[in-house]
Design goal:
Blueprint: H1 5-14, H2 25-31, E1 46-53, E2 59-66, E3 73-79, H3 93-103, E4 106-110, H4 122-137, E5 143-153, H5 155-170, E6 177-181, H6 192-196, H7 205-215, E7 239-247, H8 251-263, E8 268-277, H9 283-299
Parallel strand pairs: 3-4, 3-5, 5-6, 6-7, 7-8
Antiparallel strand pairs: 1-2, 2-4
Length: about 300
């Protein structure tokens, strides 16, 4: 279908805004402020900031959003996007608040380290440290450790998917679900959609390749923790929500991953948001995430997780 009007307006706004590798890392980070929603934050029953030991025992910031609702609530450890190189919990504060309220779940937002200052697998290990902490402390903020999952958008989706592989290998924590939104899952950037939408949709194939170089210099593109699509065995992973955008260079890798999860016996809820681009501006992409997440959480039996 044609581009969604909100996606078209977003592309028009970004038409003359250069992206990596044409601009410096510092300018790329500085430009993010223009994309952050303004206005009063949506109220959440409880918002708490804390610091825990990260993947290398360094201080790791978390922001916990606990909405009203019958306790204990499902818990989502969320790794934010930003091409592995930019973004903070503040950047995505509005989205995390809406998600917590509309999905009636606790969100543990992770301030994982950014690249190139911290390279693979350091940000992934930060996510793992946050998930282990959440499993141990879920009850402290009204959460249910039996309904603990991970989520992420874009490069955060890469970290979330890889985190489920790490948790399976280490046999802890026990993750009940994963939510992958427009995830980066193939560092080779070789899918048909990567070619079809290589330019003209803000996120370009050149930017994807640049992002992976910042995050994982010298790492093979088919390393399963860098490119979860290349993990040969997906059996036993937590049930999933996988959401892709029609006009997105990473669309096909997300859809192939959903296919492979399903073939491995993993329950998968999936959607392609027609007419939308990677950054899914406006409400349609966000509400697709909300609706599928609600269905996933409703299917989790607190007694059986």
């Amino acid at each position: 279908m044609p581009l969604d009007p909100q996606a078209r307006a977003f592309l028009d706004m970004m038409r003359n805004v250069p992206q990596p590798p044409e601009i410096s890392l510092q300018d790329f980070r500085g430009a993010l402020a223009a994309l952050v929603p303004t206005g009063a934050p949506e109220p959440v029953a409880r918002v708490e900031e804390l610091t825990i030991p990260g993947g290398d025992r360094q201080p790791l910031g978390l922001r916990i959003y606990a909405p009203t609702g019958t306790r204990p609530l499902p818990v989502v450890v969320w790794l934010h996007g930003g091409s592995f190189t930019r973004g903070t919990v503040d950047t995505f504060d509005a989205a995390r608040r809406m998600f917590a309220n509309l999905c009636s779940c606790v969100v543990v937002a992770v301030e994982q380290r950014l690249s190139p200052e911290a390279t693979f697998p350091a940000p992934l290990e930060d996510g793992y440290a946050a998930a282990v902490w959440a499993a141990e402390h879920a009850a402290d903020f009204g959460g249910d450790p039996r309904r603990l999952g991970v989520g992420g958008e874009s490069s955060g989706g890469n970290l979330a998917a890889a985190l489920t592989l790490v948790a399976r290998e280490r046999r802890a924590p026990n993750l009940a679900f994963q939510i992958l939104v427009a995830p980066l899952l193939d560092a080779s950037c070789s899918s048909p959609s990567a070619s079809a939408f290589a330019e003209g949709y803000v996120l370009t194939r050149a930017q994807l390749a640049w992002s992976y170089r910042q995050y994982a210099p010298g790492v093979r593109s088919d390393h399963p923790l860098l490119s979860p699509l290349y993990e040969p065995d997906l059996h036993g992973l937590p049930r999933a929500v996988v959401i892709t955008m029609e006009f997105d260079p990473v669309r096909d890798e997300g859809e192939r991953y959903a296919d492979r999860l399903a073939a491995a016996g993993v329950p998968v809820g999936r959607a392609r948001v027609e007419g939308m681009v990677h950054h899914y501006p406006g409400e349609r992409g966000a509400m697709a995430v909300i609706e599928l997440t609600r269905s996933l959480l409703a299917a989790l039996d607190p007694a059986g997780c």
